[in-house]
Structures are given as structure tokens and as C-alpha cells.
Specification:
Blueprint (H helix, E strand, L loop, with lengths): L1 E2 L1 E10 L3 E6 L16 E2 L5 E3 L5 E2 L12 E2 L6 E2 L3 E11 L8 E3 L10 E3 L13 E7 L24 H4 L6 E3 L50 H4 L5 H4 L47 E7 L27 E8 L9 E10 L6 E11 L3 E2 L10 E8 L2 E8 L10 E8 L7 E6 L22 H6 L10 E2 L7
Parallel strand pairs: 3-17, 3-22
Antiparallel strand pairs: 1-17, 2-16, 2-21, 4-5, 5-7, 6-9, 8-18, 9-12, 9-17, 10-11, 13-14, 14-15, 15-16, 19-20, 20-21, 22-23
Amino acid sequence: MKFNKHVFCLIIMTLLAVTYVFANKATPSTGTKKLDLDYYHNVGNIWLRVSNYGFFGSGDDAVPQYPSLEYPGGSGVDYLYQGALWFGAKKQRRDISGRKLYWLQYPPQSKDDYTYEGSDLWNSSMTPLLDTLVTVGFDGDADLYEFLPAYNPLIATHPTYELYNRYDAIATASTRTQKRGVDDDGDGLIDEDFPGYTFPFRADNELPEAFQTFGSMYPSELSSMDLALLSEPENYEIWFPLGFMNLYDPDLQHGARTYTYSKPYDDDFDGRMDEDGAPVSEQDFIGYYYDYCPLGITTVDRDYGGSKGQNTHYPLNIKVRQMSYQWSYDYIKNLVYIEFNITNMNVADTLYDCAMGIYMDSDIGPNTYGSEKAADDKSGYVKGEGYEFAYTYDADFDHGLSPGLVGARVCSPDPDALEFHCWYWKVGNGPDDSDPRDVGPTIKTSNQKYWLLTGTNPDDIKYTPLRPEDSN
């Protein structure tokens, strides 16, 4: 699969290759970094904390630690230590001069058995050197954080850090204050001023047919004739401007080259900010993060946490817009919907064989319990006609104090078109990608995270498949 941009949607729910990976207890994180962990969903029955660091749940970083994923909200019973996005792909390796690299022979005899395109040793029949890379929002065993906002502690000495750090946070919106497809501010425009920076629309051929005349325009540039399309009921039903945005956006008008996309902007130049957007739910949270430095700072290994000294992070150069939604309605109040808009920000390189994973470390029990509440968590997988998801529960339900189950499933793109895998491991046995370029004749790649994401068990002793088909 080639990759330029894609949307993955996840439901966190209580029952109460896309992969799910579960660990029964993670190593506590450093607890020292400055995170935007102020926001948690609380209009429904799940109180879930979100961040702009590629993970959800509190871990050890939020003070106070709870709620992380509290169910029912206000009960004092928590179902999550920390969950995270994992994303893997194959990427063509280049040398320091930007030249593509190729294996001298395949399979290679060592990780240095390559040459560059155009050298005396190169010919067009050689196999491209594709690195299998994985970026994780959180790796509990290794205490690693590889998805970071633009302004993160690694660049705290940058001249603009103090100026922009506070803006590089979570943006919020709600259908309780604004309506989709409505001129909320009475200026003749519709949905032109979202929370934070409003991106231009995608190219015309990437939009629904009814809106192809909007291609590459900004919402504030739409004419009254364009907006008349929205009066047609069949068009209003598919009007979702947030999903139509071009997140690559190489031009970046309105001063957004600061990469503070969540900072309020006057996108329609009417003297007001963020007053006419297109919220999805009663509680929308929107954040942006990257596995590379969008500011162009390449002098540091861009990962964070207590284990960064034992790990080398090679970025895929992807940008993520994370949008999470919650409603208070009875039929939907027991879930949180999380959407990951993942964009390939490489100018010249395609990403191949992409795989998304959701890491879940639950630690179920009352907030007053200590670390012992993680010891009796159990995980499983259920598959039926038209549905399947991974879940975790407390083995004895804490004698009735923790009666629920927490589950996660991917609902978009079309689940029937995806391959699913699910794995479990014990604390300390997590997959290793500390040197993902360490390839040789006996293994495809040393990146065990990519193996698991794509459905291959690199160690039958360490990793237990929870989905029945994942037995090898």
C-alpha cells in the first residue's frame, strides 16, 4: 500500500493491518515533561484524558492523575493507564546528500551492504533499501515518546519556544455553541472559521463530487453560489469540511508557519476568531503532533523519555491531526470516537505497507488502589459477523467495584478492507526497535514493532496472539 495521507478512526468504548497491542503494566514515564494534559472528555459516561503527544490517558504525567479513563464518570474507577497511537511503514533510505540507497545484494549480508543511486556500483535492477520504521506515542516497556508537538521540551532553548509553546496545545469546539453547515456569525459565510488554523480544501478530485469546485480554496473564499450547494439536503449530509482539509498545505497562509495550528485565528478576517466552525460532537478536542521536527531542527534525536539513550528514532516524517469526539446521548454516551488524520510530509518519498496500531495498557481498578490493580488485568478479543474488537477487564472485577470492560476498535476506513492483528505481552517483554536499521541475512528487519503491526510473531515465547488467526 502506498501512502500519502489517510484517516483512521478509533472507538474507545466500555461494554459496560490494523493492530491492537496490550501490555499488562507499563514502566512509569518520567513524569517530568511539560504536557498538555488539561483536557478530558466528560460530557458522556467515559471520562477520557487526551493529549497532543500521540497518547491518551494520564500515565504518570497528569497531576492529578485521574480521571484517565474513568467509568462511569465520577465513580472513581479507572480503566486505563495509558494508550497510544503506533504507526509503521516502509520508507526509502537516503544518504546525507539525499541520494536513494540500494542493496548491493539481496538479501543483504550486513546492514552496511548498500550503495547509492548513480554510483559506479549501482544499476537499476538493484533492490531499494527500504527501512521498516515505527513511531509510537508511548512505549511503556522502553519509556519512549516519539510523537511530539512542534514546541516540545526538546527545543526548549529555541528562540520561539516561550512565545509559541502555550499555543501549541489542544483546541476545543462543541455543537452546543456552533452548528455545522450554518452561518453562526451572520457574515454570509459558512463553516469558515474552525478552532485554530483553517486549512485549504484538498484538490478537486479528492473531494465529493458536489464540492469539487471548492478544490484548493480556503473556506472563507467560497462564494454565495458555492454555499448554495449546502441548501440541498443530500449535500448537507456529506458536508464535513474538517475531513476535506489538505493537511499537507505547503503554502500555509495566515502566518501558520509557526505550526501553532490550535492557536485561535481570524481565518475569515472579520475581526473575530474561531466563531463559525463545524464541530462534530458536544465535545471536540483537536491536537497536532509529529514524528519529526517541523521547525527543521535536526540536531537532536527526536524522541523523549527515560529510554531515549538506548533508542535511535528514525522518523517517517508524518504529521497527525488527532480529533476526539464525545456525546451525552444515551445511545452513544459509553464511547469516545478518536480520529487520526495521518499525512505523509515527505516532499519526494512515498511510504509503503503502512500499518496502524493502538497500544493499550489498562490497569483497571479504583483510583485509590496502587500498582497492584494492574496485576490481574486480562485481555481478549471478540469477533462476530460484521464486528471485532479487543478488550480488557479485571479478572475478579475487584469484587464488584470494577465491573466493566474497556474495548477498542477501528471503524474507518472500511474495516472489511483492512487486516487486523492483536497481541499481548507481559511487562518487560515489549517489542524492540532500538536499532531498526539492523538488518541481516537471517531476518527481514530487527523492528519487532513492525512485525507485530503487520501480523508476524517475532517471538512465540514473548508474544501471545489474542486474535485467533494470529498464531505465527
